[in-house]
């Protein structure tokens, strides 16, 4: 236990109360802490080391560039272990992490991503065409099935058919489980004599693993040329020349699914939620997409949605392994340093009128490495950022080319926490109407 005098001040209520505030009312909770304690404060959650929340860009730079031996993000993300597996790139540190990351990087190169664009476009067109028009719909669940379909086809390389249906159904159950507090709080990750939610989770995981291992075995035997990410991982070689083992492949496939599915669905939900409430921005986006290809404004809109509602409000916690000084404070081993994207993105000194949704700010300036951090940074920066951006471009373009978007209901929509992400509480409740019959957006 680290004495509170050794860490920056933070809320003094019991950690159970802090956990509840953090889980149920994340954004007001963070805002209150910043108002009271400034750009760094300590959060104490149940069952995890103290989190020192940082939102000063200089201090974030120091954290992102610190030596891999001093800060361990992998250990800071242990709570994801039951789902992604022990060999996941998310959970490794130091040389092991670097080696695994190097194996995976080529799968995300630009040219590779472009080859997947056709597939993403095809899934998007089909899904978007099936969304109801002229009535209130929660877009979040629809975007979740879209992004799940994209990952299963682009990452796992599954074709429509029985196995895709089976994996989709089983994975949805595992991912839903992971979205509940019981899935993420270490004290609750216990078996009670073979019963209880934890025992059920282990059964579910085994049901998912079986078809995944089967797929890996089939793909090892099949030498056809493919564009999916599993093909790249099968070709990857460790520094000693050995291929990735079945267990490594299973863990990385689950990692890509967990890291890439809910995040992209929630980020797109926020983009629609924001655009529905900013009719001028939505109209400009639609016009620019019609007039030319609108690429520049679309990019700015995506960046602004990632600024205004980063779905991971804080990046991976970095566990301090050796004493480190950041911004004049000496941190002892055993606490976690956490760059808080939400708070940096809403700092009025960095972003004037931070609560206004205004893509134009990114036409004027490119995002800064340590002031725009929705994908984290340093050697742990999101591996799938270019894939997520590609998917967001394709989905937003498809929806705005075909429909106009306005909010359903009274316009206000708070956030809710699902697993480690924040998404719109009412699922981005929206009305889509065919373009041409554009209805003025409600206030
Ligand atoms: C809008 C969507 C997404 C957001 C906002 C997002 C955000 C993040 C963040 C904040 C991190 C931690 C970075 C850090 O701590 O410095 C991360 C890591 C990671 N993300 Fe994403 N992500 C998204 C989509 C994806 C997709 C689509 C994939 C893959 C298909 C993916 C794969 C990964 C992986 C593998 C890591 C771990 C990297 C490492 O530890 O070396 N992400 N992501």
What is this entry, summarized?
This protein has helices at 15-24, 26-37, 57-64, 73-76, 81-84, 94-104, 110-130, 139-154, 162-178, 181-184, 196-221, 229-235, 246-276, 279-291, 295-308, 341-345, 361-364, 385-402, and strands at residues 40-43, 51-54, 71-72, 136-138, 318-320, 324-326, 329-331, 336-339, 403-407, 415-418, 421-424, 429-434. It has 443 residues and is an alpha+beta fold.
Walk me through the structure.
A hairpin with a 2-residue loop joins strand 6 and strand 7. It contains 18 helices and twelve strands. The protein has a five-stranded mixed β-sheet with strand order 1-2-8-5-3, with helices on both faces. The longest helix is centred in the middle third of the chain and has 31 residues. The chain has a single domain, classed as Cytochrome P450 (Cytochrome p450). The C terminus is likely disordered. With 443 residues, it is of the alpha+beta class. Bound molecules: protoporphyrin IX containing FE (HEM). Protoporphyrin IX containing FE binds next to helix 13 and helix 18.
């Amino acid at each position: 236990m680290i004495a509170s005098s050794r860490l920056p001040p933070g809320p003094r209520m019991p950690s159970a109360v802090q956990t509840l505030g953090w889980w149920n009312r994340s954004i007001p909770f963070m805002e209150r802490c910043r108002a009271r304690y400034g750009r760094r404060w300590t959060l104490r959650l149940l069952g995890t080391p103290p989190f020192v929340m940082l939102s000063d860009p200089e201090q974030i730079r120091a954290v992102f560039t610190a030596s891999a031996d001093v800060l361990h993000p992998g250990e800071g993300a242990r709570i994801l272990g039951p789902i992604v597996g022990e060999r996941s790139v998310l959970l490794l540190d130091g040389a092991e992490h670097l080696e695994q990351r190097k194996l995976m990087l080529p799968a995300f190169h630009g040219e590779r991503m472009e080859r997947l664009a056709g597939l993403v476009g095809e899934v998007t067109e089909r899904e978007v065409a099936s969304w109801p028009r002229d009535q209130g719909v929660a877009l979040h669940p629809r975007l979740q099935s879209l992004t799940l379909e994209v990952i299963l086809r682009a990452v796992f390389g599954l074709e429509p058919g029985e196995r895709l249906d089976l994996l989709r159904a089983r994975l949805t159950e595992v991912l839903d489980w992971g979205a509940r507090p019981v899935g993420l709080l270490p004290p609750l990750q216990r078996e009670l004599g073979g019963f209880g939610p934890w025992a059920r989770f282990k059964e579910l995981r085994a049901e998912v693993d079986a078809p995944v291992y089967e797929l890996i075995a089939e793909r090892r035997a099949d030498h056809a040329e493919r564009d999916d990410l599993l093909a790249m991982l099968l070709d990857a070689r460790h520094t000693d020349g050995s291929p990735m083992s079945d267990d490594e492949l299973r863990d990385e496939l689950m990692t890509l699914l967990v890291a890439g599915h809910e995040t992209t669905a929630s980020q797109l939900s926020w983009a629609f939620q924001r655009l529905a409430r900013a009719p001028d921005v939505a109209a400009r986006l639609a016009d620019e997409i019609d007039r030319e290809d609108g690429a520049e404004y679309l990019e700015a809109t995506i960046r602004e949605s990632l600024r205004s509602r980063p779905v991971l409000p804080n990046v991976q916690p970095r566990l301090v392994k050796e004493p480190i000084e950041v911004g004049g404070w000496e941190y002892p081993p055993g606490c976690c340093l956490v760059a808080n994207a939400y708070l940096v993105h809403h700092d009025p000194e960095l972003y004037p009128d931070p609560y206004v949704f205004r893509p134009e700010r990114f036409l004027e300036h490119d995002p800064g490495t340590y002031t725009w951090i929705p994908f984290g940074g340093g050697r742990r920066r999101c591996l799938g950022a270019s894939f997520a951006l590609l998917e967001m471009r394709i989905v937003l373009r498809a929806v705005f080319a075909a429909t106009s978007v306005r909010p359903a209901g009274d316009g206000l929509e708070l956030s809710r926490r699902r697993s480690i992400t924040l998404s719109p509480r009412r699922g981005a409740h929206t009305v889509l109407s065919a373009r041409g019959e554009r209805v003025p957006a409600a206030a």
